[in-house]
Amino acid sequence: MKYQRVLTGITPSGTPHLGNYVGMFRPAIEASRREDVQSFFFLADFHALIKCQDPDLVHRATREIAATWLACGLDPDRVVFYRQSDIPEIPELTWILTCNTAKGLMNRAHAYKAAVQSNQEAGEDPDFAVTMGLYSYPVLMAADILLFGTDLVPVGRDQVQHVEMARDIAQRFNHHYGEHFVLPSAAVDDNSAVLTGLDGRKMSKSYGNTIPLFLPEKQLQKHINRIKTNLQEPGEPKDPDTSSVFQIWQAFATPEQTAAMRQAFADGIGWGEAKKQLFELLNDHLRGPRERYEALLADPGRIEQLLREGAVRARHFSVPLMKSVRAAVGLRPLDP
Ligand code: TRP
Predict the structure, then answer these.
(1) What is the whole-number distance in angstroms between the Cα of residue 12 and the centre of ligand 1?
(2) Using one digit for the tens of pLDDT, what is the confidence trace for 286-329?
(3) Does residue 230 sit in the same domain as residue 109?
């Protein structure tokens, strides 16, 4: 059987929240259980350095994200699960691709353009605080993708451009040096839920409106109580479709539970009661993963060992490909 290779990287910066779980960890892990898929999940710690120069934070976030993947059910026997910085072929390929990537292509990258634009609006030099890391970020990401013969890259809308750039870079390389790279496609899952946050906007670290995924029970309850609601009293019918409480409910509930909650809104359930039920639903759902998460964090040696084993497996793919790429560009032994 021909496996689809599916590759997902997550940048360890900050603590994972419910929105990451619903939009990313949960669907990725479900997809990894399919028989016709070979999944590669990795911690993009080289990417983390672009935005974060605090070593303790990078280190802690890497441990937390690794523990999150495992606690949420990633099976390291099935999935090739590794840390980007354990794969020396990634920076090596990055350089070779950098030498074959037009600067003009990078000028068009959204993340770079957004940085320049906000500098201009602030009356700063356009390149203020723009590192070469930020500028060449899409080349590093292309190396991540191309090194493993990736067919599909599940991403959010904001990352589609990067996958398209990886494809452009691969095409250009193949054209010049022969067919070395599979051309990857982005897979945007419009069905995967986008969660609303405490304030009703999309749950996102940059809005400061998140509910961290593995809060202790009491803290989880406190966060849920902080979800913004209107001033309607118990007994007044409420609109589920404009309510964060309902949106979050829906992301975790069965269809029957969702229908029941919709009815309860129509019947005028009080906000306090709706939040109490939401807490119970989330807490039941997250109890098992939270216990596994805490056990893993208490045993970082176990995480380290799994990542190292994953790197060995990943390098079964990256070492041979890199060897052929080196030879193709003329980096090969001098004796014939
Ligand atoms: N840039 C991605 C993000 O910030 C993370 C990432 C790095 C990635 N390399 C990747 C995602 C390769 C998919 C494939 O979300």
Answers:
(1) 10
(2) 999 999 999 999 999 999 999 999 999 999 999 999 999 999 99
(3) no
Q: In terms of DSSP H, where are the helices of 34-129?
A: 45-51, 55-71, 89-98, 103-107, 110-121
The pLDDT value given to residue 191 = 65
Cβ(49)–Cβ(221) below 8 Å: no
Name the pairing type of β-strands 4-10 and 185-187.
Answer: unpaired
> For 26-50, how does the pLDDT look when each residue is reduced to its tens digit (9 = 90+)?
999 999 999 999 999 999 999 999 9
- Which atom of ligand 1 sits closest to the CA of residue 10? 5
Q: Which pLDDT score is estimated for 192?
A: 66
Strand partners, 186: 153
The pTM score is 0.93
What are the angstrom distances between the C-alpha of 88 and each of 46, 78, 310, 318, 322? 11, 23, 14, 9, 10
Pair 122, 175 in one domain: yes
Instruction: Give the angle subtended at the CA of 183 by the CAs of 174 and 25, to the nearest 5°.
Output: 145
Strand runs labelled E in the chain: 4-10, 37-43, 80-83, 152-154, 185-187
Ligand 1 atom nearest the C-alpha of 47 is 7
pLDDT digits (tens, 9 = 90+) for 230-259: 999 999 999 999 999 999 999 999 999 999
> Do 10 and 70 sit in the same domain of this protein?
yes
Residue with tokens 């990857």: 184
In a domain, 202, yes or no: no
Residues 165 and 246 in one domain: no
Q: Which of 5, 162, 163, 189 to mutate for ligand 1's pocket (most ligand atoms within 8 Å of CB)?
A: 162
Amino acid at position 100, single letter:
N
Query: 117 alpha carbon to ligand 1 midpoint, in Å?
Result: 23
Q: Domain containing 134: what range?
A: 4-193+299-329
